Amino acid sequence: MHDRSPLVSAFVEAARSALSSATVDGATKSALAKVFGSISSGRPLSASRREMFPVCALVDPLLEELEGKDERLGDLAKTLRPLLSHLGWRRREGGPNASDNFMDGHATGMIIGPGGAEDRHDVWVGLTIMRPNVRYPDHSHPPEEVYLALSNGEFRQDEAEWFDPGIGGVFHSPPGIVHGMRSGEAPMLALWLLPIVPKPSTS
Ligand SMILES: [Fe+2]
């Protein structure tokens, strides 16, 4: 058994602590228990080559700002900053209701999960960064999802009203629900965590 990288270990502990002190409902608690159960042990940093996009340059200053704003989130930000160049950064195609500036206006960075700094398939934990005035497409996926807002910005589930959980706000997206997000006049940064339920064996 190889040991988890100290960079990822520090992030997991800070994320656990930041999320456990947030006020959350039962569904969020249960999803987080699944995520942190899956990642109780890990493996070394992925050696894959990393590509970063211009929008990724917005992440570090936002994290630096958080360090001065809030102790709980500041501790998390401190562990994320040295990990940024190790994340699996990707951009996705647009989709329903995406803004025209979406492609250059966003990136997602996998921290723990497929192609992530810790490459594995039983969980997805990562970041999304968006430039100001960008609308992320409406999308859905079978796994439930927990978001931790690391900046202001708005989210929507199904046809419900848009809401801003506020910096440090935590909420749950049930499995399969259609959801999207949009930034306002400032960049938007969010951490997301998805427990992946294994597909039943087809044998
Ligand atoms: Fe999602």
TrEMBL record:
Pfam families: DMSP_lyase. Gene3D superfamilies: Jelly Rolls (2.60.120.10). Keywords: Plasmid. The keyword Transcription does not apply. It comes from the Bacteria. The keyword Lyase does not apply. One of its GO terms (molecular function) is dimethylpropiothetin dethiomethylase activity. This is Transcriptional regulator protein.
